[in-house]
Design a protein that fits this description.
Strand order of the largest sheet: 1-2-3-4-5-6
Radius of gyration: 25 Å
Structural class: alpha/beta
Number of strands: 16
Order of helices and strands: EEEHEEHEEEEEEHEHHEHHEHHEE
Helix content: 25-40%
């Protein structure tokens, strides 16, 4: 099995787009990527826009290799509205009429309508498919956060191993705790999330890719030191052997660096005797 993160916070954009290949079957998971329109009260930097362009190019390239496209939910960093990425493929997507509301429901309905006649779209919620090379299992709708969260529900996909401890995963890709929103959700919720992930690793022996929400915290290296120190948790970039570049969480520093005043250039002292005599033109000073 090949697991290739295509875009993620550690690669400079908001995304969990991933390509999974088992035998001759390719699966594109959550083919979306975006930038936060404002973070620290600042717009994206040019480096972020360039990272987004590269991310979209990678997603498009791997879409062409995929037999299946999976959409876990309808936040804009997890799916594309463009039918070209789905055309001719089997699309397993969150049911836009079940345990979903607001803008997510509207986006879901719009996507399903756009794909009518373009792709074979199936409700992913609780689905199970067996292909020649793999078994693909999808969870029932799960809260997108703590119970009662206003962020709706998602469906989790599992390839060749099922859901969390019950099905003994060997590799788990999670978005991590939303510590950048700790003031809103509370410290206890973040600590519980860390404890639960340690529990899953201890019970299954799995390795973990943790990216997305966790990497939006400017202090993610220290905040999640307990997880990194297990040597079983890595970012998407580290999984690929690349440098970790969480551009959004560094946006304030990037803009500060571009707004530094220019360095002062020392002005040489000129002796009065060295000055060039002024020349006067008739009727006034010369330029």
């Amino acid at each position: 099995m090949k697991v290739i993160p295509l875009a993620a916070e550690s690669l400079g954009v908001r995304s969990m787009a991933t390509y999974v290949e088992v035998g001759r079957t390719g699966i594109l998971i959550d083919p979306g990527a975006t930038l936060a329109p404002a973070r620290f009260g600042l717009p994206p930097t040019e480096d972020e826009w360039e990272a987004l362009r590269r991310a979209n190019d990678r997603i498009s390239a791997y879409a062409a290799r995929s037999s299946f496209v999976f959409v876990s939910h309808y936040h804009e960093d997890h799916f594309r509205s463009d039918p070209a990425s789905y055309a001719g493929r089997i699309v397993l997507a969150k049911d836009p009429r079940r345990m979903i509301s607001g803008k997510q429901a509207q986006r879901g309905e719009a996507l399903w309508k756009a794909l009518d006649g373009q792709a074979r779209v199936e409700r992913a919620d609780g689905a199970r498919r067996r292909e020649a090379d793999l078994e693909l299992v999808v969870s029932s709708p799960l809260p997108h956060g703590v119970d009662g969260t206003p962020f709706g529900s998602i469906v989790a996909s599992t390839v060749a191993a099922a859901y969390l401890i019950q099905q003994r995963p060997t590799l788990l890709y999670v978005s991590g705790p939303v510590s950048y929103l700790e003031r809103d959700v509370g410290r206890d919720a973040i600590e519980r999330a860390i404890d639960q992930l340690v529990r899953v690793m201890d019970a299954t022996g799995c390795k973990v890719i943790m990216d997305h929400h966790a990497l939006r915290d400017a202090g993610f290296a220290e905040r999640f030191a307990r997880l990194w120190e297990t040597n079983r948790v890595a970012t998407a970039a580290s999984h690929l052997g690349l440098d970790v570049t969480p551009l959004e969480s560094r946006r304030n520093r990037a803009w500060a660096a571009t707004r530094k005043p220019p360095a002062r250039v020392p002005v040489p002292r000129v002796k009065m005797d060295d000055r060039t005599p002024r020349k006067f033109a008739k009727g006034g000073f010369s330029d």
